[in-house]
Specification:
Elements (H helix, E strand, L loop, with lengths): L1 H32 L10 H17 L1 H20 L6 H25 L10
Main location: mitochondrion
Keywords: ATP synthesis, CF(0), Hydrogen ion transport, Ion transport, Membrane, Mitochondrion, Transport
Protein name: Hydrogen-transporting ATP synthase, rotational mechanism
């Protein structure tokens, strides 16, 4: 156990030395590559303004998203009405989608219980 701890400490020391040596250059390169996204002057007031713009822009996009949702729902209803014309590929895709939704639900439940599989808290 002590040898593993020593190995981990050595790796961490090596990683921190690498970051110390190359971190500044990486930071400068990253800022240079993405300078079109940087707002000048970078002040707290400008950050607050951008945050408000993002919030209200997303708020304004809700009607369009709602309209898209109802169109998708109408499409599903239409497919259900004409299910006798449904191809095997479409049914397979729908089954995989349902399975994926169920898997995400199960993963969320496990995460919500603190990564326990039984739900038992000792």
């Amino acid at each position: 156990m002590a040898s593993k701890l020593h190995q981990v400490q050595a790796k961490l020391l090596q990683a921190s030395q690498f970051v110390t040596k190359h971190g500044s250059a990486y930071h400068k390169q990253l800022l240079e590559q993405n300078k079109q996204y940087i707002v000048d002057p970078p002040t707290a007031e400008k950050c607050n303004e951008l945050a408000k713009q993002l919030f209200y822009t997303r708020l304004a996009s809700i009607p369009g998203r709602t309209e898209s949702f109802w169109k998708e729902l109408d499409y599903v209803k239409n497919m259900w009405k004409h299910r006798h014309e449904l191809k095997v590929e479409d049914a397979g895709i729908a089954a995989l989608f349902g399975l994926e939704c169920f898997a995400w639900f199960c993963a969320g439940e496990i995460i919500g219980r603190g990564f326990t599989f039984t739900g038992y808290y000792p």
